[in-house]
Amino acid sequence: MFKMLNPRRFYHAVGRRKFLEFILLAVFILFFYGPLLNMLMLAFANEYTAPAVLPQVWGLKWWKYIFAQDSLVSSIIQSFIVAIVTTLVSMLLCIPAAYSIARFKYRGRKIFMLSFLLTNAFPKLGIYTSIAVLFYKYGLMGTYVGVVLIHMINSMMFMVWLPASAFRSVHRQQEEAARDVGAGPIRTFFKVTLPMAMPGIAVATLYTFLGSMEEAQGTMLVGMAKIQTMPVAMYGIVLDSSAVQIGAVFAILLIIPSAVLIFLMRKYIGPEAIAGGFKMK
Amino acid sequence: MSERKVKLQIKDMTKRYDNGDGVEHINLEIYEGEIVTFLGPSGCGKTTILRTIGGFLDVTSGDILVDGKSIIALPPEKRPTAMVFQSYNLWPHMTIYENLAFGLQLRKVPKATIKKEIEDILKLVSMSGTEKKYPGQLSGGQQQRIAIARSLLLKPSLLLLDEPFSALDAKIRQQMREELKKIQSDLGITVIFVTHDQEEAMSLSHRIVVMNKGKFEQIGTPAEIYDKPATLHVASFIGEMNFIKRDGKTIAVRPEDLIVTEGTGGDITGTVRTVMLLGHYVVLNVQCGEDVIKCYVDRELSDRLHIGDEVSIGIGKHTVFD
């Protein structure tokens, strides 16, 4: 078998162009996943001193350390709570808006649609600072409501545009057929339109949840250290501590929910699903 | 016509769209148990009328009554009508059984009854055994059969069909027409059909409403429409028709009503232009001055005729328009 791994044989088998592409891909993968692999290794290193390639001692010391810290465990819980609340409130507000954009004709509809792009049109910190001024006025700084609102700002564009395109893809006659057999508008929405639009909505919800999990800047600003989500806590640890492994473990803890969710929903996520969401109609 | 009950009455109905298109001052009575077809080219307003009956469009003015009661204020789910669209009838995320049971479950019909009725209706449309399949697994014709079955399950007062067979190929279309006609005569249900295919209208209907540009041109049985077309549009839309201009008037005569003889001496003389064999008869195109007249002749006669020969045409049954 090793005879077949000879690069020269490979070069002649696939041709020059594909060979170069393969090399390029290999370099890219190393560049991209190299640091991640390094981090994975560090998370399970009881002792590690650079410039050694592998840790001196392997173990779960730092995992035990993290789970012993109340503040860090509570930050994990905070992250999930804020992410779930953000996603639910976003769904409640944005999905009806998406449906109205998809189905109804009214004046200012296109402008309404475009207005959701505004949140992503400006540098985030600029938006957050001006919001902070307003939040101070209304006493929302350091509150859950404030933090959820900040997280929602990031999600609005996805939660309106993607579901709108998903609703549009449901043929109007499917809904008319449901009305015709006796279902009212609300039942039609829940039994026919929503199930058929589910893939697009699922993708948007996924992005909202994951986006909320990793949101750091706004949370730090508005949360004012009273509300610590995982990214916020991680900034603190990484800057303070000398043990680089703590950061590595935390990073993995952050990656796990994203990786699991993306894996479960891999059927729905693809370039077409996202590109399709940004058509102007 | 005997004292038949009026099922649907459209009273002076007008539907005007924002861009000015639409139908105006529509008056029509449809009797119980008949198949009435709205026939016309695209954009003539036939689907508009159907959708106002179904409840998917509001009327601008006028009234629509079913069994004597006005329905224009009712939303689609409360109307006694059931509609079958050209496509996108079935819900792809539900099985055939769920598609069919949807309406019955809404009406709180007991589960055992639902099961029995679905079995019976599937037998009626020749689709037994497909309960667990999904619409995506069925062909176009099969999907339309299920769509019709679903509508029939609700025992509607009126069955509305919006060009349901247009998306199917010719052979299946013929089959579906026959099946629909049989089902209708078995159940005695009142059917309103919309199509642009005149052959479909002629073969299926008890009465045809020929439409053009938002207006009714003629209402009558297939025989009346064919034999006595009321306007030039109806004459040209249905079947084959020759138009001969004579003394400032137009004579409309069908190919089968022309008698062709060799030589000169008839009403019209002309020369043979083309001879086309169609099976048991021949289509003869005759050049008479500026007109080309289409005639049907039998094989015997056509064997004796060649291109350029002089023939005489005698005009039988015809209609004269100004």
Q: In order across it, which strands form the biggest sheet of chain B? A: 6-7-8-3-9-10
Instruction: Summarize the helix and strand pattern of chain A as letters.
Output: HHEEHHHHHHHHHHH
Reported for the largest beta sheet of chain B, the result is: 6 strands, mixed
The CATH H-level superfamily of the largest domain in chain A is MetI-like
The CATH class of the largest domain in chain B turns out to be: Alpha Beta
Main sheet summary of chain A: 2 strands, antiparallel
Could you tell me the radius of gyration of chain A in angstroms?
24 Å
> How many strand units of chain A?
2
Name given to the CATH architecture of the largest domain in chain A: Orthogonal Bundle
Task: Compute the average pLDDT of chain B.
Answer: 92
Number of domains of chain A: 2
Helix content of chain A: over 70%
Strand-residue proportion of chain A = under 5%
Order of helices and strands of chain B: EEEHEEEHHHEHEHEEHHEEEEEEHEE
Give helix % range of chain B.
25-40%
User: Biggest chain pair contact, residues each?
Assistant: A-B, 17 and 26 residues
- Number of separate structural domains of chain B: 2
Helix tally of chain A equals 13
